[in-house]
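Feature request, filed as a ticket because there's no other form

It would be nice if the structure record came with a short human-readable summary line next to the tokens. Right now we just get the raw output. Example of a typical job, pasted below so the devs can see what we mean:
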Amino acid sequence: CRSWGLSSRRQPSQRRARSIAAEITRADVAIVNGAPPDLPPATADLDAVQQAFGAALLDGAREAALAPLLKGDPRRFGIYRGNLGAHWSRALASAYPVLRQLVGDDFFDGLARAYGQAHPAVDPDLNRFGAALPDFLDGFEPAAGHPYLADVARLEWCVHEAWYAPDGEGVPPSLGGLAPDAFEAARAALHPSLRLHASPWATVALWQAHQAGGPGFPDTLRVDTYALVLRSRLDVEVRPGSAAEHAALACLARGETFGAALDAAFDLDGDFDVATHLRRWLEDGIVTGIVTGR
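Raw output as currently delivered:
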């Protein structure tokens, strides 16, 4: 897998990454869902103790007040905090392996701690834990000099969602026998794993450069990029596309008609090849059904 070394000029330095990680560990980060409740007295019930325990995990300043409520050596509490950070990092790394390669382990672990404190997991399925990371990266000051990282994360989340999406069902549809007016008024059922991606950065080229046997690192990062992500068989595919195809599929994904979708494509590309794209959408399982009579 091709990785971007920490020595790259585009890469945060290793010293800076470690500094960021240390600052995040020490920081008193606000919790999105409101400030933790005041610590209960030693006679507090189990629910209050559990809330205090969770608050102290996220805010080291509350650990000393929690100590009287715990049995055993309170210094062991640090083990729980370390395990929580490790769980956050592993969960995010499973969804964002390319992002981790781009920024390096130290930076990624610091990012995971900051994100976990701002977005504590609310779902027992940790596969959903990283859903807000791309938007979080947009406002993450240590990454401000690398604005493409958020869109790389958005592409990776498309891949992640496609992998866990349901399989497509049914017999491949056919347009045979459908009159032109009926076709234009029809709507499409799309494969459940289909995700559409657009970015002003070379996100697909960056993603491909970090796949086994992939091409080299792109020479230019500022490139308008469109892609569709699909798991039609066993593997998730990231397919480069055009602005016109993206516009047409986005219309269909919103439940609009084929007529509206093709109008959107022609607005961007007067030479958009309808027959070629329709054939590919049907043969590759992108369109899994034709809905008429609505």
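Something like this underneath would help us a lot:
The chain is about 45% helix and 10% strand.
Residues 21 and 41 are 33 Å apart (CA to CA).
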